[in-house]
Write a structure and sequence with these properties.
mainly alpha; globular; about 0% strand
């Protein structure tokens, strides 16, 4: 039977991952749209910077967050008078998890946007559609499979994040101790084998459910989008 302690860790992990996606998905979409549809100086540099959390050691990402958003960091000091703090709390854990997951969310959305036929955009423009209308009629619907795929990848990455989280917000039970951190703590205990097993099984189960759910949702979206295109061509 799953103990109250494990349920607490599960709920906190899901909460952190959910709020990580709440900010990371919109930001990722904006960045993906910028990279896919715009041409500007520094575009390749921006693309490289976005991918950094994926290739850098997670501890380094955590240090960057700590020096930037910590109590003595420049951003942290600006936010302090507003009562906003990210260091050593669940909000900071969501910030760290979302940042590490960001490259995995941006990539599939960017690929979806790059696959949009420019002729369709031109046809809508000739038909008198404004920029925001073309966005809602063309780019957003066509990018939905990428958003779903990126969201699932980002959720899985955020759920298993360890290095950046423990560096930025520490390992505080009930506040920042997510799956990976709890497993790490249990491994240090001589009687922690059962907790490690339970947490591992629960995390694997959640990941499998998320992946299967994304497969069904992607198939539904592809059928829906194919049907919409058929209606337009009819």
């Amino acid at each position: 039977m799953v103990s109250a302690e494990i349920w607490s860790i599960v709920l906190l992990s899901l909460k952190v991952s959910f709020f990580a996606l709440c900010w990371a998905v919109p930001v990722s979409f904006g960045l993906a749209y910028l990279l896919a549809r715009k041409r500007f100086v520094g575009r390749r540099l921006l693309s490289a910077v976005i991918m950094l959390p994926l290739v850098m050691p997670p501890v380094v990402t955590g240090l960057v967050l700590l020096y930037g958003f910590g109590p003595t960091g420049p951003i942290g000091q600006l936010l302090a008078p507003l009562g906003i703090s990210f260091a050593f709390n669940a909000a900071g854990a969501s910030l760290a998890a979302g940042l590490v997951a960001l490259p995995l969310i941006v990539r599939p959305i960017r690929l979806s946007l790059e696959a949009v036929d420019p002729d369709l955009d031109e046809a809508l423009e000739v038909a008198g559609k404004m920029g925001w209308q073309r966005f809602t009629m063309l780019y957003f619907p066509m990018s939905l499979p990428g958003i779903v795929a990126g969201g699932i990848l980002g959720f899985a990455k955020a759920l298993g994040e360890f290095g950046a989280t423990i560096t930025f917000v520490a390992n505080i039970p009930g506040e920042t101790q997510t799956f990976s951190l709890a497993i790490h703590s249990a491994l240090q205990r001589f009687d922690g084998e059962q907790m490690v097993l339970m947490l591992s099984l629960v995390s694997i189960s959640i990941s499998v459910i998320a992946v299967l759910g994304s497969e069904y949702l992607l198939n539904w979206l592809q059928v829906r989008l194919s049907g919409d295109r058929s209606v337009r061509h009819a």
